[in-house]
Amino acid sequence: MQVINIYKAAGILIKDKKLLVEKSVGKEFFIAPGGSIEVDETPKQSLVRELQEEFQVETKIEDFEEFGTFTAEAAGQTGKIVQMNVFIVKNWVGEPTPDHEVEQILWTDSNIPPDIKVGSIFEHEVIPRLKTANLIS
């Protein structure tokens, strides 16, 4: 049985059949918007907080549709296992703008540029499912 070291909530924001990914300051991998779940939070509460802090985007728990829970080695953290609750964000207010720890954002389709590294859960699980469901190009 794997020991889970990190618990995260992530949001799938889609615009014009492209998915929003972000890179935090000092990190090499692009990951989904979201972050660590605090002790007193549900995954959805965490996602509301993280989207506000990191992207200046307002959401409501009712705007989230469960996409899946995934477990994998954390991107760029050898030996650390992350469990990620992933939600499709059906509605948000505001234009995603990098803030707080976020250095760069990118709207991408399933054809990720070769010089962009995406976290494993999104690369191997989420993006292929979004493409198959025709939610992204």
UniProtKB/TrEMBL annotation:
Pfam families named in the record: NUDIX (PF00293)
Cofactor(s) the record lists: Mg(2+)
Keywords for the protein's UniProt record, in alphabetical order: DNA damage, DNA repair, DNA replication, Hydrolase, Magnesium, Metal-binding, Mutator protein
InterPro entries, per database record: MutT-like (IPR047127), NUDIX_hydrolase-like_dom_sf (IPR015797), NUDIX_hydrolase_dom (IPR000086)
GO function terms (MF aspect): 8-oxo-7,8-dihydrodeoxyguanosine triphosphate pyrophosphatase activity; 8-oxo-7,8-dihydroguanosine triphosphate pyrophosphatase activity; 8-oxo-dGDP phosphatase activity; 8-oxo-GDP phosphatase activity; metal ion binding
Gene3D superfamilies hit by this protein: Nucleoside Triphosphate Pyrophosphohydrolase
Name of the protein in its database record: 8-oxo-dGTP diphosphatase
